[in-house]
Amino acid sequence: MTAVLAHRGALTGTAVALAAVLGLVAVGSEQALVIGLITGAGYGLVALGLVLIYKSSGVFNFAQGEFGTVAVYALWAAHTNGIPYVPAIALALLAALAMGLLTERVIIRPLFDAPRVTLLVATAGVSLLAIGVEIWLGEARLRFIQPALGRFDRVSVLGIKVSDQRMLILATLIILAVALALFFSRTNLGLAILAVSQEPVATELMGISVRRLSSLVWGLAAVLGGLGGVLTAGVVQNFGPSFITTSTLIPAFTAAVLGGMTSLPGAFVGGVVVGVVQAFAIDLGGEPVFADIPGPGTLSVFLLLIGVLAVRPQGLLGKAA
């Protein structure tokens, strides 16, 4: 029965996505569609990390955005000091990995048996601490960062020029979504992580170290957040403290909920849908007059999140509890 419901959710999601695409093309919003697809791919990268931790431990990680922001700061610092872009990205991902492992070891592991709400608040504390350190050490100002790929007119989709950097985000998301789906369904390590999330005591009795797997999951999620950060920063080309948290975390959370908090492919689907809805809302309603007032794009994300939670809280590709 569960498989049938998940299959129906997938069919519903596919139908909704196709209807949205055809509708946007019919009303002449090709630009919103293309921008939304690529922006949504960035949301999907961060959502993959959120789903990975939730899938393995049942915890929503508020610090996921700061894994990405820290990686962007590391990339900027390395590249500014003369390190070539590709090695600088590697250093940025190592910085994100170090933050993820440190968070798991210092914050998550001592609270391993605590209620899940305690862990949620703890990750929020990690995020606030990281933002404070970024403001303290890096000052609250915007910095410029170059894209990994600088060409803007190589690809044309529906008559809209798409930069190489945006195509890189989309390709990265597709590859990671497929790789992680295969990892959790076809490998012993992936199955062990799923077993920990469902029956941690039984998994320990089978000789599998729950805490060691926890470090692996948090490290992998941090790398996903860092990758989303460095690729997104290359599109925006400027960043500041809490860059990924303020710009991407809520849309990524909405994407994860929409696709299903236990579905890695759902994070990809949800990210694309959220990106398209947000781009269409901005195209339809324009930007806000005042910077501190939420615009149509922000409001559309919140409305989409509320709608999903009200109608299908398990998401399109998730399983009902």
CATH architecture annotation name: Orthogonal Bundle
Task: Characterize the overall form.
Answer: globular
Question: How far is it from the N-terminal to the C-terminal residue, by CA?
Answer: 13 Å
Strand order of the largest sheet: 1-4
Mean pLDDT: 78
CATH overall fold name: ABC transporter involved in vitamin B12 uptake, BtuC
What count of domains describes the coordinates? 1
pLDDT below 50 for ≥5 consecutive residues: which ranges?
A: 1-6, 289-293
CATH level 1 name: Mainly Alpha
Strand percent estimate: under 5%
Multimerization status: single chain
Rg calc = 19 Å
| Number of DSSP strand runs | 4
- Largest β sheet strand count, sense and barrel closure: 2 strands, antiparallel
Number of helices: 12
Q: Please trace the helix and strand order, writing H or E for each element.
A: HHHHHEEEHHHHEHHH
User: Which structural class do the helices and strands define?
Assistant: mainly alpha
In helices, the fraction of residues equals over 70%
Question: Could you please describe the fold and organization of this structure?
Answer:
- The structure is a single chain.
- With 321 residues, the protein is mostly helical.
- It has one domain (2-311): Orthogonal Bundle (ABC transporter involved in vitamin B12 uptake, BtuC), CATH 1.10.3470.
- It is 74% helix and 3% strand.
- It contains 12 helices and 4 strands, in the order H-H-H-H-H-E-E-E-H-H-H-H-E-H-H-H.
- The protein has helices at residues 2-26, 30-57, 64-80, 85-108, 116-138, 164-186, 188-198, 200-205, 210-236, 243-259, 264-285, 296-311, and strands at residues 143-144, 155-157, 160-162, 238-239.
- A two-stranded antiparallel sheet has the order 1-4. It has a two-stranded antiparallel sheet with strand order 2-3.
- A hairpin with a 2-residue loop joins strand 2 and strand 3 (160-162).
- Helix 3 (64-80) packs antiparallel against helix 4, helix 10 (243-259) runs parallel beside helix 12 (296-311) and helix 11 packs across helix 12 (296-311).
- The longest helix has 28 residues, at 30-57.
- Residues 1-6 and 289-293 have low confidence and may be disordered.
